[in-house]
Amino acid sequence: MAGARYWTCSACRPQREALRWCISRSATPTANRRGNRCYSKYSIEEPVFEHMDIEHVISKYSKNSSTRLTLQDLLQFGKPPVAVDKLVLNARHIKRELLSSLSRRVIALRNLPYIMMLNPNISQIYHKYLSSIGFVYGNEIFKAKNVTTEEENRQFVDALQKMVDEHTDAIPILAKGVAESRSYISSTHANAFLDEHLRARVGTRLAAKHHIMLSHQSSPDYDTSRRYVGMVDTNLKPAEMVQSVADLLSDVSDLQYGLRPHLLVDKGSDIEIEYVSEHLEYILTELLKNCFRATVEHHLGQSSSAEYRMSSSSASESRGIFGGNISSIPPVLVTITSTPTGIQIRLRDRGGGIQDDNLKRIWGYSESTFEGDSRSDGFKTLNTPPPSVTGTGGSSMGGLGYGLPLSRAYADYFGGDIELESIYGWGVSTLFFILVLGTADYCLD
Predict the structure, then answer these.
(1) Which of 103, 156, 201, 271 is an S-S bond match for 61, by CB 3.0 to 4.6 Å?
(2) Where are the transmembrane segments (predicted)?
(3) Is residue 330 in some structural domain?
(4) Measuring CA to CA, how many Å separate 236 from each of 115, 154, 228, 274, 276?
(5) Alpha carbon distance 53, 166 (integer Å)
(6) 103 CB-near residues (< 8 Å, 6+ apart)
(7) What's this model's pTM, rounded to 2 decimal places?
(8) Residue 55 and residue 29 in contact, taking contact as beta carbons nearer than 8 Å
(9) In what order do the strands lie in the sheet with 427-435?
């Protein structure tokens, strides 16, 4: 029979059939079993769920919208300890949020070009989401009727912590997969996909970690004099956090450049707010990292804007912007002021600014301006985020370019924003708005 030579290997036949089904998109949504493997039109191999219809669960929960939490929502529990009945009600809400968020992310991945699903990193995230849906939906402790007592909530928290830990490295893995698949998707489509994905992740992880923290803070041995309500620091001083982040990044700069940049808080050192400290830490780390790196490289003559500063006699003299020694490079100025609805933090550097062409792309994902490392090194040091946020970190002052757009996602979650102005050859002024009193309703569709 013509063409029979392609099917002489019985072991290869299922793979070839599955590939034909995937490319033609003619298979039914429910995975098709072939021996001990499971195929569908979405990927070559999928997890097998013997005791549940995973497609029914995804279809059901993906239709639910998620209500974006406000600071008032997080603070409604009051100072710990929190009553068991309130924790139980919140646990039931968390389960629905997890299934809804995971289901929508699975569908978003399925809507990517099929060839991207063959990427091992994207495939890993896809399988992880499917497995997590099976874990949440099939685990007895996640069933609402089974969380009624303090001990059952403790078991729920243990399972929830496992979920949080399981997805800690999702950002760098997905980042690598999308970057490796750039030739199969437009930048507009890729940015829209990542923006929706990461913004949804912010809310899901916040809700889960807030419940975990509330439960820990309600234990008998917890020091109730502490200032936290779940994830919210009720007496957070931005100036102190700015200085703490600056000290860390100065150490990083010292390792990489042999120089320690510094900052000066010229106003607002006494301002306090109620805010999620992890979010603020991430944003300040990204903004200050950019300020420090630009300042050092500009005054070392290592940036494209250095021609505006260096004297015509010699670029190796390492003279500052006013002709002084390199040790006198200007500090990053930080100004913190109160507004009727919150605060604003302005960071000003003299790092030479950003070229107009690059300025148009800074809010896009994977638009890194760091040229010194290879791509593989960049993935290992993804924007130097605090481990408390993503579980990753590193010593590099550069990364994949996710810092600014992800920082804006964190700021936007509570109604804030980040604006940036640049004068090329001089420096950048970044304004970070924190909406502390906002109560607007949002949905993550």
Answers:
(1) 103
(2) none
(3) yes
(4) 46, 28, 9, 6, 9
(5) 23
(6) 57, 58, 59, 60, 61, 62, 133
(7) 0.77
(8) yes
(9) 263-267, 332-339, 342-349, 427-435, 417-423
Judge if 268 and 329 occupy the same domain: yes
Contact 37, 15 (CB under 8 A): no
Q: How do the pLDDT tens digits run along the chain, 445 residues long?
A: 443 333 334 444 444 444 444 444 333 344 454 444 454 556 656 767 777 888 899 999 999 877 788 899 999 988 889 988 888 888 888 888 889 999 999 999 999 998 999 899 999 999 999 999 988 888 777 765 667 778 888 888 998 999 899 888 888 788 788 888 888 988 888 888 888 888 888 999 999 999 999 999 998 888 777 889 999 999 999 999 999 999 999 988 888 888 888 899 999 999 999 999 999 999 999 999 999 999 988 888 776 665 555 443 333 444 433 333 445 678 999 999 998 889 999 999 998 888 887 777 788 775 543 333 433 333 333 233 444 443 344 434 445 567 888 898 899 999 999 999 988 888 999 999 998 864 333 333 3
Assigned token pair, 9: 């290997």
Query: Given 214, 229, 244, which residue is the final one in a domain?
Result: 229
Q: Where are the alpha helices (DSSP H) in 118-186?
A: 120-138, 150-166, 170-180
- How does strand 66-67 pair with strand 37-39? unpaired
**How many structural domains is the chain composed of?**
2
**Kind plus residue range of the DSSP H or E element containing 211:** helix 187-217
- Which structure tokens are listed for 348? 């000003």
* Four-residue CA torsion sign, 86, 62, 282, 411: negative
